[in-house]
Amino acid sequence: MRKGLIGRLLFLAGAAVLVLTLVEVSSYAGKPEPDKVMLKAKNGDVPFNHTKHAKDLKIECKTCHHNMGKTPEKMACQDCHKPEKGEVASLKEAGHGSCLKCHKEKQGSAAPVACKDCHKK
Q: Between the N and C ends of the chain, which has fewer C-beta atoms within 10 Å?
C-alpha cells in the first residue's frame, strides 16, 4: 500500500511540474513582439528596434530576456537594473555592457557605438 501511495505522489508531483512549466512557457507564446521599444535613459532615451534584433539578426530572446520564465510576462530592463548599482548591474552597466559590447564586436556593420547614435535627446 505504501509503495502505491509513493508512486501516485511522485506521479502527481511530476504532472504538477509539467503543467506549471507549460503554463509559464505559454504565457510568452502568442504575445505579439513589439516592433520598436523606447528604453528610458537619463542621458536621452534609446530607441530599440526589436524586429531588427530578433527577426533580422536572429538574436535569441534569452540573450536580452535572461529572466524569461522566471518573471512576470513583461518586464522592463529597469525593473531589475536600477539606475544605481545594487545586487545586479545598474541600468547603465547592463546597457553598455550588453548592447555596446555586441555593437563593438560587429564594428564592420552599421551598429552604433557613439553615445549620440543611441541616446536621443
A: N
